[in-house]
Design goal:
A hairpin with a 2-residue loop joins strand 12 and strand 13. By secondary structure, the chain is α+β, with helices and mostly antiparallel strands. The longest helix is centred in the first third of the chain and has 54 residues. Helix 2 packs across helix 3 and helix 2 crosses helix 5. It is 45% helix and 20% strand. It is globular and about 65 Å long. It folds into two domains: 200 residues, no CATH class; 78 residues, no CATH class. The strands form five sheets. A four-stranded antiparallel beta sheet has the order 7-13-12-8.
């Protein structure tokens, strides 16, 4: 009697434990397979996008050697982002910078801009007149022992945005950027001659209190008079009257020594950090205090980093500083360029 009872009990456990496992197993395997299948297209897309950057040639005129370096787009972008924005900035800010850098060069490629025969028909230079670019070897010298982690972070910013540019009405934008705002950015027409619909003044409170937000310098009275072509009053005190401001709170116009200047005029003639300035005479010296650093049009780099530290993504940063834009693939624009050749 005991042996048949044991057989029955064993059979019962077989039904309860083994059979449900056999039923679940095919579904578990299927789920795992589906999850792996879902990941593969994303990984493939990332590879294709990076390959697109690697496939695009960029010729860069090197000002120091007066020669042209022929690079892959990815290498060019790494050299630009590394030169234009501190590597210790938040990765989302660096990605926003990578988007502006790629947009800038794609626009030049599509428009077939070059520097002429004297520069070997290079499409771009390596100075602030274009985008600052440093080679890998130059970055090693600049960064020293920090090179490994900094270059890895810059590469990630470039690769995470591979094949992406900023567009407005289906065209690459003029991706203007600068260091630090005075708390607001400028309308394009308030610094340059023409309005640009996506380059409008926006609030940028993240800049306030950052390293380049405010500075005071002094210049000899004789230097200021010579640079501006004016004669200043001998008395101590504030300089400049009839001051008018732009929407971005920089100086639109100001009268100094009886002559009317734009804020940009004064900034460029005196080499000031921005066109938001005050001037005061003290004896034989002029004290000049500025807020912000740069022309103020487009994306503020310190503002972008502040937004990133607040949890904003590269796309949110870009769409804050450039109004009404989209982030789209660069490939169709580059294909058009190739088709025209």
């Amino acid at each position: 009697m005991k042996r048949p009872l044991m057989i029955v009990i064993g059979f019962f456990f077989l039904i309860v434990l083994v059979i449900p496992s056999l039923i679940v197993l095919p579904f578990s395997s299927s789920s795992k397979s589906e999850a792996q299948t879902e990941k593969k297209p994303q990984q493939k897309a990332m590879t294709v996008s990076k390959a697109q950057d690697l496939a695009v040639p960029v010729s860069v005129y090197r000002s120091a050697t007066q020669k042209v370096d022929k690079l892959q787009l990815r290498d060019y972008l790494i050299g630009v982002v590394a030169s234009e924005m501190p590597a210790d900035f938040n990765i989302e800010a660096l990605k926003a910078q990578a988007l502006t850098a790629r947009t800038y060069i794609v626009r030049r490629l599509v428009d077939k801009d070059d520097l002429g025969d004297s520069a070997g028909n290079a499409v771009v230079g390596d100075t602030t007149a274009y985008q600052v670019f440093k080679s890998n070897d130059e970055l090693k010298k600049v960064w020293g022992k920090d090179y490994a982690w900094k270059i890895k972070k810059i590469e990630k910013a470039v690769d995470d945005t591979a094949d992406q540019i900023i567009t407005y009405k289906d065209e690459p934008i003029t991706a203007s950027f600068f260091s630090t705002s005075n708390g607001q950015t400028e309308n394009a027409e308030d610094y340059w001659s023409n309005p640009i619909p996506y380059l409008k003044s926006v609030s940028s409170p993240w800049d306030i209190g950052t390293p380049k937000y405010k500075q005071t310098i002094s210049k000899p009275v004789t230097t200021v008079q010579e640079k501006l072509g004016v004669t200043l009053n001998a008395e101590d005190g504030p300089i400049g009257t009839n001051k008018k401001l732009t929407e971005g709170k920089q100086i639109a116009s100001i009268v100094i020594g009886g002559k009317t200047f734009t804020g940009r005029d004064v900034r460029e003639k005196l080499g000031l950090a921005s066109a938001d300035f005050t001037m005061e005479r003290k004896g034989d010296m002029i004290l000049i205090t500025t807020k912000g650093n740069g022309h103020g049009v487009g994306m503020s780099q310190y503002g972008a980093n502040g937004m990133a530290e607040d949890g904003k993504t590269d796309e949110q940063i870009v769409k804050h500083y450039y109004k009404g834009v989209k982030i789209e693939k660069a490939e169709p624009f580059l294909n058009k360029m190739t088709a025209k050749k």
